Amino acid sequence: MTFADTFAQSSIKGALTRGSVAWLLITPAVAAAKVWWSGIAAVVVGVVLIAAYVAFATRYVRRHRPRPAA
Description:
Elements: H1 3-8, H2 12-36, H3 39-64
Helix pairs in contact: 2-3
């Protein structure tokens, strides 16, 4: 099973994979925004990145979910 298959699973393992990827992608950007700008900028960056990640991850999961055998 590849990483993409695990990412697209609708199980606890898939949810944990998506959550850990989100944590790794979003946390450094929010921390950098907090350091370089302000707390409000960090919140805005975090909200925008979370919304974008949810949209992309949802679309990926829908497109790569295994289809049930008929």
